[in-house]
Amino acid sequence: MKSEDSILAAIAGYVDTLGFVALFGVFTAHVTGNFVLIGAEVAGFGQRAFMKLMALPAFIAGVVVSSVLLRSMQGATPSRAACVLYAVQAALTLAFCLAGVGVSPVVHADGASVIVCGMVGAAAMGVQNAHSRLVSRPGMPDTVMTGNVTQVVPDMTDMLSPQTPPGIKVAARARIGKILPAVLAFATGAIAGAVA
């Protein structure tokens, strides 16, 4: 599917930002961002490290479930494997949204229901992150945009430079055409998650 990366990027942007805004700064997709926030807590500048700590095992659980599921489906086509992971991710993402509605308005970040909500979101994003590692398909990272933005910048530089050979410009334009829609979709998802 040509727009698969953009759709997944929009979902990741939405879920990560919604979790960050509504659940006192927990990252669900950029789960390593929680390490930074935990470090700030240790230094006396953060708050509510427990929820951020709990996001990591939940994220890992999403990856493990994905791996075990696909291992049990040996011989399945990449398309079939992708469908199974999409179904698991959709169920977890729906559970995250329903749990969020159930705990609203969130007033106590350390409440069990709030922590479970964040963990379910992190598990959903663990499944999405595992997908690109476990299912062979052309594509790009769709939950973390740093590498994608890093690729777009030198490609744009190559396209704008008069000294760039035509063949390199064509390749750069093709990469930008693949990457930029996902970056913009992630940003759109993040904005939607922030205002949700």
Automatic annotation (TrEMBL):
InterPro entries: DUF1275. It comes from Paraburkholderia xenovorans (strain LB400). This is DUF1275 domain-containing protein. Keywords: Membrane, Transmembrane, Transmembrane helix. Pfam families: DUF1275. PANTHER family: SLR0142 PROTEIN (PTHR37314:SF5). It comes from the Bacteria. The chain crosses the membrane at residues 7-29, 49-70, 82-101, 107-127.
